[in-house]
Amino acid sequence: MKLIRKEDGAGGKYMMDFLKKHVISRFDSKAGEIALSDFEDSSDFDKYAFTTDSYVVNPPVFPGGSIGGLAVCGTSNDLAVLGAKPAVMSMSLIIQDGFSLKTLDWILDDMAKWLKKIDAKIITGDTKVVEVGIGIAVNTTGIGLRNEHLEKNLSVVREYRDYPHSWVRDSGLADGDAIIITGNIAEHAAAIMAGRGGFGFELDVRSDVYPVWLFLRYALETGGITAMKDPTRGGVAAVLNEMAEKSGIGILVEEEKIPMKDDVKSFCNVLGLDPLIMANEGKVVMGVVADQAEDVLKALKRAGQKNAAIVGRATSEYEEVVIETSIGTRKILPPPTADPIPRVC
To answer: How far, in Å, are 64, 74, 287 from residue 106 at the CA level?
Structure first.
């Protein structure tokens, strides 16, 4: 008898194969432009974007955040990378009998803080208390709105080429587009591991949990963004490969230009982890029309993303994602098969 493995929900190739066989084959449909089988993190109907996600992070409170802030930011981020302004959410809690009420209040306060910052509201929800040893799990569903920043971005892109989408799609790359990463990578996964302890050394890193709409609106207003995705499970490597495959174009990335904190780099080196496949919760990988790339980068930096960087370009020279290493060699960067660190989001 075949059983479900944790890899089947870990964000890599195994999860994609699992979803295609067991979910998409039964339920593929669409209410607007984006189909379930497009594997976007959000879909759309009418003038709205729509997404849902469940969070089971362990520990539920970690350096830099909590499962509550992660749920609000993660759900709003899935909307924001389409260009939608997060507006309303639902919240469902599954709480273990005996869970600390003080910890629960801290988690809910963390959610409220981020909701206020993005001007969004919880308008419905559900709560279950169970006996199984889950600690706490949170599901949030979000709806986002079309807005003037999105429309401005699309109008700028269409000054350069035909762009058939009504949202910013992860399939929108074209030859020559610059690739931007909006900040230091792998901090969320590293912070979760640090929160679990047992490594014998101090790690000066906090999770990057953050609602990306707070800076994306300025980048969209500058215009020229052709593709976006937030690199959560599977990290930057997963996102780059998804963008390349869906867009039908290769990507060349320069390893030395990828922003990363020294502590995170050392942490990964010591433990043999690849930071390119580690989860992030407040970063975006985006494609930008080449002529607009520097202006978008400046807009991101003005909005507080000081470590944002142009790290490569889309190119018809390749059919896959290729990374140029620090010693000048080039190699294929494959999609991850699974998340190396379970229960980080």
So the answer is: 13, 18, 37
| Cβ atoms 193, 206 nearer than 8 A | no
Distance of alpha carbon 145 from alpha carbon 150, whole angstroms: 10
Q: Which of 98, 115, 145 is at the close of a domain?
A: 145
Asked whether residue 163 falls in the same domain as residue 45, the answer is no
Residues 116 and 174 grouped into a single domain: no
Q: Which amino acid is at 307?
A: N
- Predicted structure pTM score: 0.96
Comparing CA positions, the residue from 91, 95, 82 lying closest to residue 121 is 91
Which of the residues in the chain have pLDDT under 50?
A: none
**Are 179 and 318 within one domain?**
yes
Range of the domain at 162: 148-332
Count of CB atoms within 10 A of residue 273's CB? 18
* Tens digit of each residue's pLDDT (9 = 90 or more) over 202-258: 778 899 999 999 999 999 999 999 999 999 999 999 999 999 999 999 999 999 999
